[in-house]
Design brief:
Length: 160
């Protein structure tokens, strides 16, 4: 008994199909019209992606330029404030120097306040019966905690 094999006519050439019965019908089935996809869609998508990337890059550049301008404006404003404060400080120093000048103090005391140097009968000497606190603290014997504190303070002074 002869074995029959199934043969797929779709993968045959035109010469092979002509030798088989019903070749015309098979050929019509094998060769359907294939609609080619146009290659314009990928180009359009690529152009769209490039356009989006270009717009994003322009947006980033403009945004960074805006941030840089804002920082420059703030720096300029702070520099102007610094100049104003420096000028005010200089004026305060000049005023302080003028008011601490002894000749100026003497002229204000004599002319505006009507003061004069004290006479000998206006001077009173005061003597204290107790010594100053600094002298008294040095005379006392240091305690245990004071000795430890002094030791650590001398170590810190040596280190720094």
């Amino acid at each position: 008994m002869a074995k029959e094999y199934a043969y797929d006519y779709r993968y045959s050439t035109a010469a092979e199909l002509s030798s088989y019965p019903y070749a015309d019908q098979q050929q019509q089935q094998v060769l359907p019209k294939i609609k080619k996809k146009t290659a314009a869609k990928p180009k359009i998508r690529i152009n769209q992606m490039l356009s989006v990337m270009l717009i994003a890059a322009i947006f980033i550049v403009v945004f960074r330029y805006t941030v840089i301008n804002e920082m420059n404006y703030n720096n300029t404003k702070l520099a102007n404030q610094l100049t104003a404060v420096t000028a005010e400080t200089d004026m305060a120093k000049i005023s302080l120097d003028k008011t601490t000048d002894l000749k100026y103090v003497e002229s204000v005391a004599k002319n505006q306040l009507g003061m004069d140097f004290p006479q000998s009968y206006q001077v009173v000497n005061v003597t204290l019966s107790y010594p100053d606190k600094a002298v008294r603290a040095a005379e006392e014997a240091p305690g245990f905690f004071t000795t430890i504190r002094n030791f650590f303070s001398s170590v810190l002074e040596y280190l720094y």
